[in-house]
Amino acid sequence: MNRSIHRLYGAVIVAFAILAAFLAWWQIVRASDLGDRADNPYSFERERKVDRGRIITADGTVLARSVPVKSGTGTVYRRVYPNGTLAPHVVGYATPELGRTGVEAAMNTYLGGSYGAQPLLERLNLDTKQGADVQLSLRKRVQEAANAGLAATGKPGAVVAMNPKSGAILAMASNPGFDLRQVADGFGSISSRPNAPLLNRATQSRQPPGSTFKVVTATAAIDAGIATPESTYDDTGSITINGQPITNFGHEVFGPGVTLTAALTHSVNTIFAGLGQELGPHRLGEAMTRFGFGLRPEVEGLPASQVVTSGRFQGATLLPNGEQGIDAARIAIGQERLLATPLQMAMVASAVANGGVIQRPYVVVRVRSRSGDIVRQTRPETLYRAMPADVAGQISDMMRSVVEEGTGTAAALSGLSVAGKTGTAEVPGGNMAWFIGFAPANDPTVAVAVRVEDTTATGGAVAAPIAAQVMRAALGGS
Hints:
The chain has 478 residues and is an alpha+beta fold. The chain contains 17 helices and 22 strands. The strands form seven sheets. The chain has a six-stranded mixed β-sheet, with no helix packed on it. Strand 20 and strand 21 (430-439) form a beta hairpin. The termini are far apart.
């Protein structure tokens, strides 16, 4: 009898131990996951009681804040977006029902007050949970210029403007946009509109980069020692590679003695296709990797799920850079399953502008507590060296020629030197019109990438003027 009692007692002890371990697992280890579940009624009510921090631009414009509202259970907070159309894809939204996106998601620990001693004080009921303020690198004037430029086209597209020396993103625009003030009550209406307004085309949409990729090809050729800006080539207007002809835009023929600088200036496909063949898959692939193709950019302040990788794709599968047997000639002119986001192409322009070095892009500058203390500060961080400084200088001079006398003259700014490269990728439904560049060319403080989709126009005609507008705003011009 005693033995049976001991066994029963032992079983009860084990059962309690298992129960205790189970409760500890969910209440301690997995507490945050459980609390973040959308179907958790406690989470829903808890979220309404958090006084979330503000999201503000670099120049002090409030993009998001919380306001107190009286309810049957006391005071709750409602998230409001005073400038809901300015940068909705970057700011994102935060609602108990829909969850969080953008900066609202990436910086939720700080905005929601779940940092430092705040969670402990809340659990002890010694303090109201208050979030910290998040300051962005976006500048209102630059963002407005990007929004207006894209809206004027009436086409889907995106703009990224950044400081090439630091990586700070000055503007990130995606068209069509939406109004954050309408999300809580009209999410279904927004999501059902054409051209996916909730999609951040700047970081989540890949398209063929066209001739803007020739900047990468020219860099690879000069760095490998197989060309200089003064190297000359003969252009007959067509070159046959892998049994298929490659021609220049509009079937133009440039004749003998075309320098590499002139080939970039006038975007001569045949010369760059030949360079791609000479470089071969390995060397061209190495250059792509140095520029960040095939690597997901980490943007401080945005969720990783909202930033996609650029590179060569077979369907949804990312293919290796430098894969043997690929058509290097067509990669060299921005074709052959090559897809890129505007963010990636802004990083290409930034590499040239910054002496060959690519800085990690960021949209969050600092986080400041309600008492005014800085609890987090973003420091510039080098990601890759895409090329030696001397090569960057040569490419910069070549890109200046594009704007001064080539396909990118619409990006010129009065009294300032601008460097750039146009691109026009022909796809079903219309052109993908691109421009990448930076200014002032001799000491760049802004680099930009513009993409306009489904257009009949070229990059030089529709994307370059938007770039000029954005760069002018970034440099303080009218």
